[in-house]
User: What shape does this take?
Amino acid sequence: MANLFDYLEWRGDVGLSASGFNSVDSLILSVLSYIPFDGIVSAEIDRNGISIADAAELFADSDTAEAAIRNEEDVRLLSALAASDRFGDMRLTGYVNSIDLTAEKQFSAVTILLGRGRTYVAFRGTDLSLVGWKEDFNMSFRCPVPSQEAAAVYLEQVAARLRGKLYVGGHSKGGNLAVYASVFAKRRTRKRILAVYNNDGPGVSSSILERDEFREMQDRIFAFIPQSSIIGMLLEHAERYTIVHSDQSGLMQHDPYSWSVLGTDFVRMQSVTNESVFIDQTVKEWIAGMTLEQREHFVDVLYRVIGGTEARTLPELTKDWLKSAMALGKSFKDVDEPTKKALIETLGLLFKAARNNLDVFRHAREEKKR
Assistant: This one.
């Protein structure tokens, strides 16, 4: 089936004035935020910025470290956008990229000027840094996390400096940040938001769903998840969501390049798979079975064990897997006995939840056969 690159070949020569902004455009701009635009796009938020075409040219000539590239397809996407009439003249501004190991924060965003007084605020999802994944896990027991607070501040800065209507979106954690920032925006900013796009990002905590601000924004929040979504089913969703066909399986469906496109929309499906439901229920049951203190303790210990490898990014952790495995083993041995016991007990809750849900799904299949 067609994907984002096919969409660009088919629709790339058609400007927004001829064919309006759509959910596929939103996913593309959300993925664009993964490009490390350090030194290319200014941190200042203004109406000038730099065109995607010029940014792509500078990026191609830069000596950006390969470690900063999340996916080689992102570079290919940037090149395709630069060559298209639809995206090439869009201007980039307000690029920020902040990693704070002490605060356990990974935050990045870029603003895209669509033209005709409309702006897209794109929040980056989890990058290759281990602290970024740690912050994701922190969401299970803490709200807000630092990147959510940063997203809310960033959106207000954009609203203060740029006039007109706003779109807000992101992929993975970026989708969660888009929802959080929009809900906690000032009322006058919320009124300017046309749509919020959460592309296979976690939902938000139940306390946010109960806020009047969320209910006010709910009809303008659009979530998209693949049929076997895992990431996008985490936490709570009250907004409507669209199930998108992916040509990958399992966790690989999180990859936006695997999402199927038909015309100006995604290929939609009626429901998520049993695999997705099983994992969603298992993880939520596991999290619900722990106190907030247990969740925090588990995440901290796990991160400390991984930190013992001295890796700071996923590529560093996987580059020499044997060496990393030995370091992980050593780190685990260095954990004190009470902490080690708590870690094992917490993992035991996960296995128990998985076993219980597996029995439920087996029973449901047997009943269906009868």
Summary: The longest strand covers residues 105-115.
